[in-house]
Amino acid sequence: xxxxxxxxxxxGSLLTGCKREQRVxxxxxxxSQPANGTVLSEVAAGQQPPKGNQPNPIAESAYAVAEGxxxxxxxxxxxxxxxxGGAIGPALMDSEWIYGSSLEQIHSxxxxxxxxxxxxxxxxxxxYQVWEIAAYVRSMSGQLPSDVAPSRSDHMPMVVxxxxxxxxxxxxxxxxxxxxxxxx
Amino acid sequence: xxxSFISPMFPGHQTPLxxxxxxxxxxxxxxxxxxxxxxxxYVIVIAVLAYGVVRNHAREGFxxxxxxxxxxxxxxxxxxxxxxxxxxxxxxxxxxxxxxxxSHSTAVLAQAQAIKIDVxxxxxxxxxxxxxxxxxxRMVRTANEIHVPVGAVVTIHATSRDVIHSFWAxxxxxxxxxxxxxxxDLTIQVDQPGTWRGQCAEFCGLQHxxxxxxxxxxxxxxxxxxxxQQLSPAPEPASSQAIHGRxxxxxxxxxxxxxxxxxxxxxxxxxxxxxxxxxxxxxxxTLKNTRGNLAGWISNAQSIKPGVxxxxxxxxxxxxxxxLAYLETLR
Lengths: 184, 331
Known about the structure:
The structure holds two protein chains of two kinds.
Chain A: H1 2-14, H2 28-31, H3 62-74, H4 78-81, H5 103-112, H6 127-139
Helix pairs in contact in A: 3-6, 5-6
Chain B: H1 2-6, H2 22-54, H3 71-106, E1 115-122, E2 125-130, E3 140-143, E4 145-149, E5 153-160, E6 165-168, E7 176-178, E8 184-189, E9 194-200, E10 212-218, H4 220-231, H5 240-251, E11 281-282, E12 287-288, H6 291-300, H7 317-328
Parallel strand pairs in B: 1-5, 4-10
Antiparallel strand pairs in B: 1-2, 2-3, 5-8, 6-7, 6-9, 9-10, 11-12
Helix pairs in contact in B: 2-3, 5-7, 6-7
């Protein structure tokens, strides 16, 4: 009896991997409403930062992250953030987050834009793709569940993929440093 | 002689049995030679086998021979088997030499005066570039439609932007693989004006079957006219509908992936749409380029070609109408 029980448990544990590769090719007209900004709560005092839209439930599957990587290149996020190291824009692979590290907050950052250079992509990128890009951005600092992170990069060089880097631990919100104005 | 008799029996725009270029003709000859030899041999073998089975089968009370050592029969059998073996070797050699000759003759078109065309395979469409005379300002970029002058030698410089594809226009030449990170050359010549269809011939993902292209062979004058017309930027829209359509294009997701020269849209992820209306098909040979098909394709391409990179673009129908009006001006 015991071997059977063990094998049933082992086979059952395989089920946990089912959603890893789940993909939805046709998000449908409703799911593809252009991202047009998020509802911010009126009061943002206390510990809890304002939440954005509800995330796409499969946004953190392996397929979504791979798609996010493609869009990150295609929509020229690379142009400012490089491949995570940052250049004109801030680095994305460290634990410093000016506008929050959660999936919802990154989604809001992409959709609304941020001061000093980050343009708003509202209406330019379909909403489900924004979630996929946000998932990829999070993955660059090792925030992915380990069953989702790929074992090798999508590109030809055989290197450790950026989605499998050691996890960074973002602290509390880091407000942008205020540059003191020169006295008049 | 037999070839010139057989070829016209199989007309078509995507078949190696109706060659329109010298290389496809060589390949067809080789194909027919090997096909004739193997068919004849096959018929003979089956006939002898059938004779052996049927010969004594019908006879009442037939008892099979026991094995008897008869030197006369042995000598006869040795001769027959030896002759068949010799004939087989000769026929295999004939087919081998013919194949060598075919490979050689498909590779010897004079390339000095060749027109160069760059072809890039994408999942799942073909990007086509004409870097004529290497002059950047004379470069034309289009998609899924390759125009060539009739009778001219054309070198196709092919590579892939993602996975392995294969370029195959059966009326014109054999297959040539498009490999990421590696460039392959294919020299072709089309002797007959017309539109010849080609197809990706290496499984490249979900929509491999919907990755076709057209080779349009036209006279030198028509080709030059087409080329000059493709060089020009997109015309300014005249009607107010089309002007609004351009605004819709430039403020929606379209602009993230597509180029229309003459506007601020300059992304190179998807096909160049500067002269979209001059092409006969959309979505890599999937649909005819009509207003209705284009509307369906823009609204939800995923329902037509699941997995394609084009996302659904929901927009008010008046905006969609104006956008279509604008796209139709892109001649």
